Amino acid sequence: MAKFIALVSYQGPLPAGYADQPAPDPAMFGLPAEDDGCRNDPLLGPPPVTFPGGHDGFLGGEYDGMGEPDAFAATLHTVLDD
Fold first, then answer.
1. What span, in angstroms and rounded, lies between the C-alpha atoms of 75 and 69?
2. How many other CB atoms are there within 10 angstroms of residue 47's CB atom?
3. What percentage of residues in the chain have a pLDDT greater than 70?
4. φ/ψ (deg, to 5) at 62
5. Which residue has better confidence, 24 or 65?
6. What is the H or E stretch that residue 8 is in?
7. Nearest Cα residue to 8 out of 48, 75, 46, 19
8. Greatest CA span in the chain, whole angstroms?
9. Where are the domains of the chain?
């Protein structure tokens, strides 16, 4: 994860061989120094939720899109309450 954070935080073009560099110290990013391989972080662990109405399910007719705003809102409340 530290290597990924360093990669996406890099400013400018990546130099040749950048991917071959060792990962930075995870503590630089507030991560534990040891990695046991588990990926149960609450930000990474929850299963995806399908919201009613598709990509623009929250729209109620504005911008030429008609989703399912009431069902979308109910699903959103359920997800946020969990």
1. 10
2. 4
3. 91
4. -75, 155
5. 24
6. helix 2-9
7. 19
8. 51
9. 1-43, 46-82
Quickly tell me which residue has 């299963």 as its tokens: 47
65/27 Cα distance (integer angstroms): 45
Q: How far is CA 28 from the centre of its chain?
A: 20
C-alpha 24/C-alpha 75 separation (Å) is 40
Q: Is the pLDDT of residue 38 over 80?
A: no
Q: Characterise 54 by phi-psi region: left (phi > 0), alpha (psi -120 to 50), beta (else).
A: left
Contact 42, 57 (CB under 8 A): no
Cβ-contact 17, 23 below 8 angstroms: no
Q: Does pTM surpass 0.90?
A: no
Which residue type occupies 52? Answer: P
